[in-house]
Amino acid sequence: MNNIIKMLSVNNDFRVVLADTKEISTAQLANFTGNNFVRDFLERIITNCVLLSAINDFDQKISFSLRLINNNSVFCMIDNSTFSMRYTDSINDQNLDPRDLFDEKSLLSITIGDWNTGLHTGMIEANIDSVEMLFASFSVQSEQLPSHFIPAGSTRGLMLQPLPFADQNTMKKNDEEFVYLASALEQTNWENAFDLYTSYAKLIKETKIN
Questions:
Q1: Which of 142, 179, 141 is nearest to 160 (CA)?
Q2: Can you give the pLDDT at residue 115?
Q3: CA angle 10, 11, 16 (to 5 degrees)
Q4: Residues with Cβ within 8 Å of residue 43, at least 6 apart in sequence
Q5: Greatest distance between any 2 Cα atoms in the chain
Q6: pLDDT at site 127
Q7: Contact (CB, 8 A) for 182 and 150
Q8: Pairing of strands 4-9, 73-79
Q9: Is 32 helix (H, G, I), strand (E, B) or coil?
Q10: Which of 54, 99, 102, 197 has the smallest number of CB atoms closer than 10 Å to its CB?
Q11: Quick one: how many helices (H) and strands (E) in the chain?
Q12: The predicted structure's pLDDT at residue 128
């Protein structure tokens, strides 16, 4: 089943991506032995990596490197619509609190492209312990279109990306309504997920990241 839904607003002024990453998370965290708080943290990283990748061209390789305290790190890559994740073994610590992984030296870097097509890397300080806020901050600071990452549980989410000519007041209203709909997105059958947004956007494409 496709796990990515790409949409364009009815007024053509913003783009939307929905993602369901339950299967990806189950596969990538099959050997994870840490606590549920850290698992939730890793699942949110997976979801937001998929959302950011989905707004770009799937033919491009995209990698995410999160450098945390005490030599902890998380690395994700999406290449040819296939997801892979690595993280340091100490993240399996049962007593680890994900909020303690961040300090003023933590960094998030994201690279799009490869040596053949050309590389573009953006890097920001990662001293925010909300994964969604961190990715939103990256979109603002890395010369991309500022975007809002809205969680619907840890393995579903939505990315809303206003286009440059979008009206700010209208976008604020849409943003609030999409946050409100997040609880419904979390609970609804994925086959019916697009139905929640038919009054806001039109379907552009459904696809899959493995």
A1: 179
A2: 58
A3: 60
A4: 21, 25, 29, 154, 155
A5: 48
A6: 81
A7: yes
A8: unpaired
A9: coil
A10: 99
A11: 4, 10
A12: 76
Token pair listed for 60: 């491009």
Quick: pLDDT tens for 69-119: 999 999 999 998 899 999 999 999 999 999 999 999 999 999 987 656 677
pLDDT at site 184: 97
Residue with tokens 């099959």: 30
CB burial readout 14-43, b (16+ within 10 A) else e: bbbbbbbbbebbeebbeebebbeebbbbbb
6 is written with which tokens?
């790409």
Contacts of 146 (CB under 8 A, 6+ apart): 136, 139, 140, 161, 162
Q: Using CA atoms, how far apart are residues 9 and 113, in angstroms rounded to an integer? A: 27
Task: Give the CA distances from residue 58 to residues 4, 19, 62, 84, 126, in Å, rounded to whole numbers and listed in that order.
Answer: 11, 14, 9, 15, 25
End-to-end CA distance of the chain: 10
Considering only CA atoms, which of 111, 125, 107 is closest in space to residue 68? Answer: 107
Grade residue 58 by pLDDT with cuts at 50, 70 and 90. Answer: low
Q: What does the alpha-carbon distance between residue 14 and residue 154 come to, in Å, rounded to a whole number?
A: 24
- Residue/partner pairs of 120-129 with CB below 8 Å, 24 or more apart: 126/66, 126/67, 126/68, 126/102, 127/102, 127/103, 128/102, 129/98, 129/99, 129/101, 129/102
d(C-alpha 106, C-alpha 126), whole Å: 5
Helix or strand run (H / E) with residue 125: strand 118-125
Which pLDDT does position 208 carry in this prediction?
Answer: 94
